[in-house]
Specification:
Layout lengths: L5 H9 L2 H6 L2 E8 L4 H9 L8 H12 L4 E8 L4 H12 L4
Parallel strand pairs: 1-2
Helix pairs in contact: 3-4
């Protein structure tokens, strides 16, 4: 079954020059069928430096993104698990370490 082109549209926006000038950082994460917060955080930092623990991931993420505008695209998300979404949002909003 094919989608309606959401990823194609998101890629088009993501690759626009205006996006590069507006955001300090751009992050693209392909989530797919397995929605795991640690995996998403790892992928978000994958190009910067690999870390092992959630605390290290959150500290690195906070160091990279604090005070900066950033665009985060979570592509191919299939999970509607509210607890996992809330966990991810709490990491991105109020990192605990």
């Amino acid at each position: 079954e094919f989608g309606v082109g959401k990823t194609t549209l998101a890629k088009s926006v993501y690759n626009q020059t205006a996006i590069d000038t507006h955001f300090h950082k751009k992050i693209w994460v392909c989530v797919s069928n397995t929605f795991e917060v640690d995996s998403i955080l790892s992928q978000m930092l994958g190009s910067l430096k690999p870390e092992k623990t959630r605390d290290a991931l959150l500290k690195s993420l906070l160091d990279e993104l604090t005070g900066k505008r950033y665009l985060l695209i979570l592509d191919d998300v299939w999970s509607d698990d509210r607890e996992k979404w809330e966990s991810l949002m709490s990491c991105l909003t109020y990192p605990e370490f």
